[in-house]
């Protein structure tokens, strides 16, 4: 006998009907008799979710100028001149050094990677991402600001390209949403733009299994979860927090639905693709 997992319902149905007539839906292994019960449970669960508490901030890394000086990419005189110019222009130091012809893009990228403690790529062919490695939708990739470029299925490892500064919150959200461990590699702003435009371009609409939507509030999000569960009959729901938004990924046998909901008082464009120069 299957009994509805919604606490205020607890309606039951014979197992044979649940199994063969596919009555109701399963969410994270728990059976619900109807979409309204799934929706009410999802809403209650979402209301209980709290943003992650602020952790102790990491010890600040060395400044980019100090690192590039140590690497021999610039001289102390050049660093002083660039810092003086930066106070007037307000540009990031890496951009300032390149505009003053004191450093090339690779030297800046090498310094930024040392600052972040990750490796970097000097060149990359955008063709490697046209088949959408990692299975994310282009909209998810743009919103997160990281581009999967290689998959290691054996170790559940996802190599991703990103810009500096290292988007640690996005990488954490990616890990929570997919269960894959992201391995970040820094790329130049221009390479990142090419990758973001190319990602998934070779995947036809019929091949796409991942849908991405922005929702207004908890009511709409809970209704979407219930609809996905009713459509697929058995789904898993994963939550993650990124910046000022809550992400929910509903995974079924037929498709994956990812939804992004801004927290109260936050405009829903806070996680749109953004580019910065360093």
Question: What would you note in describing this structure?
Answer:
- This protein is of the alpha/beta class and 278 residues long.
- The protein has a domain at 64-120.
- It has ten helices and twelve strands.
- The strands form three sheets. The protein has a six-stranded mixed sheet, with helices on both faces. Strands 5-8-7-6 form a four-stranded mixed sheet.
- Helix 2 (35-48) packs across helix 10 and helix 3 (64-70) packs across helix 6.
- The longest helix is centred in the last third of the chain and has 15 residues, at 218-232.
- The protein is elongated.
- The model is unreliable at 53-57 and 268-278 (pLDDT under 50).
Roughly what fraction of the amino acids lie in strands?
Answer: 15-25%
* Cα shape: elongated
Helix content: 25-40%
Our Rg estimate from Cα atoms comes to 23 Å
Number of strands: 12
Q: Poorly predicted ranges (pLDDT <50, ≥5 residues)? A: 53-57, 268-278
Mean pLDDT: 85
Largest sheet, spatial ordering of strands: 4-3-10-11-12-9
First-residue to last-residue Cα separation: 61 Å
Give the helix tally.
10
String of helices and strands: EEHEEHHHHHEHEEHEHEHEEE
């Amino acid at each position: 006998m299957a009994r509805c997992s919604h606490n205020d319902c607890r309606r039951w149905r014979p197992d044979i009907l649940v199994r063969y007539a596919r009555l109701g839906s399963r969410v994270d292994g728990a059976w619900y008799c109807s979409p309204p019960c799934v929706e009410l449970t999802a809403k209650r669960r979402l209301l209980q979710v709290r943003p992650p508490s602020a952790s102790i901030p990491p010890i600040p890394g060395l400044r980019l100028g100090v690192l590039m000086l140590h690497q021999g990419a610039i001289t102390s005189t050049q660093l002083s001149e660039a810092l003086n110019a930066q106070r007037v222009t307000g540009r990031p130091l890496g951009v300032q050094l390149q505009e003053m012809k004191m450093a090339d893009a690779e030297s800046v990228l090498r310094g930024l990677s040392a600052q972040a403690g990750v490796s970097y790529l000097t060149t990359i062919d955008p063709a490697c991402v046209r088949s959408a490695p990692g299975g994310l939708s282009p909209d998810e990739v743009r919103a997160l600001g990281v581009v999967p470029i290689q998959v290691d299925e054996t170790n559940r490892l996802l190599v991703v390209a990103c810009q500096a500064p290292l988007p640690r919150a996005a990488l954490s959200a990616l890990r929570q949403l997919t269960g894959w461990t992201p391995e970040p590699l820094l790329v130049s702003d221009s390479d990142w733009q090419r990758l973001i435009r190319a990602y998934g371009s070779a995947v036809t609409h019929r091949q796409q299994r991942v849908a991405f939507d922005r929702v207004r509030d908890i009511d709409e999000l809970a209704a979407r979860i219930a609809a996905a569960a009713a459509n697929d009959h058995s789904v898993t729901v994963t939550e993650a927090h990124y910046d000022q938004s809550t992400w929910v990924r509903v995974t079924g046998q037929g498709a994956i639905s990812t939804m992004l909901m801004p927290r109260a008082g936050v405009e829903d464009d806070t996680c749109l693709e953004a580019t910065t120069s360093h």
